[in-house]
Design brief:
The complex is a heterodimer of chains A (112) and B (111).
Chain A (H helix, E strand, L loop, with lengths): L3 E4 L2 E4 L5 E7 L5 E8 L3 E8 L6 E2 L6 E3 L9 E3 L8 E8 L6 E3 L3 E5 L1
Parallel strand pairs in A: 2-11
Antiparallel strand pairs in A: 1-3, 3-8, 4-5, 4-9, 5-6, 7-8, 9-10, 9-11
Chain B lengths: L3 E3 L3 E5 L4 E7 L6 E7 L6 E7 L4 E3 L3 E6 L4 E6 L8 E8 L5 E3 L3 E6 L1
Parallel strand pairs in B: 2-11
Antiparallel strand pairs in B: 1-3, 3-8, 4-5, 4-9, 6-7, 7-8, 9-10, 9-11
The chains are: A mainly beta (112), B mainly beta (111).
Chain lengths: 112, 111
């Protein structure tokens, strides 16, 4: 079955380190998204991509970057991790605009 | 600014009763809305969607109502069960082409 997977599921890192969270989908979807989820804020959009070589900033993009070198993957990089980036991160994909988005199981990141 | 939000952060209902979760949106250009369910420790799961050319859409035990006049969206769950306990989010495809979520409502079902 097609799916979307995130790795790792849990990560602890130190302040200032570079961290990359992986997202891989096998639906051949054009659109991919990264969200962070914090209490009191719901899901906030970090970055999104409409296809290979396309990336766009979302609501809370500062301190994060993404790259889309193929259809299946959208890795999220924290250039220099900060304690404020401690959160649960979700990746999602959708076939096109105005269609259902499917979510991964999330990555819990702790920055100490 | 444009936003998708919820009227009630928590909702507690008795098993077997109907639940209604509400959501307000402010972007009148949006034409596609989705309700998601999120259980503890899991990613959001699609429940039901609706396009702006519809007022109502029904699924299995769930109904979504869209009132474009007052920019209001609601999710109705019939005969609520303990397995329905979760956080529910409404989401909106904005005209700029990204999917924006409201803050969520926690539904607790009492046996």
């Amino acid at each position: 079955d097609a799916e979307i997977t995130q790795s790792p599921r849990h990560k602890i890192t130190e302040t200032g380190r570079q961290v990359t969270l992986a997202c891989h989908q096998t639906w051949n979807h054009n659109n991919m998204f990264w969200y962070r989820q914090d209490l009191g804020h719901g899901l906030r959009l970090i970055h999104y991509s409409y296809g290979v070589q396309d990336t766009n900033k979302g609501e809370v993009s500062d301190g994060y970057s993404v790259s889309r070198s193929n259809t299946e993957d959208l890795p999220l990089t924290l250039e220099s991790a900060a304690s404020s980036q401690t959160s649960v991160y979700f990746c999602a994909s959708s076939r096109e605009e105005d269609t259902e988005a499917f979510f991964g199981q999330g990555t819990r990141l702790t920055v100490v | 600014g444009e936003s998708v939000g919820l009227h009630l952060p928590t909702l507690s209902v008795q098993e077997g009763d109907n639940s209604i979760i509400n959501c307000a949106y402010s972007n009148s250009a949006s034409d596609y809305f989705i309700w998601y369910k999120q259980e503890s420790g899991k990613g959001p799961q699609f429940i039901i969607d609706i396009r702006s050319n519809m007022d109502k859409r029904q699924g299995q035990r769930v109904t979504v109502l869209l009132n474009k006049t007052v920019k209001h969206l609601s999710l109705q769950i019939a005969a609520t069960q303990p397995g329905d306990s979760a956080v529910y989010f409404c989401a909106e495809w904005k005209s700029q082409g990204n999917l924006i979520f409201g803050k969520g409502t926690k539904l607790s079902v009492k046996p």
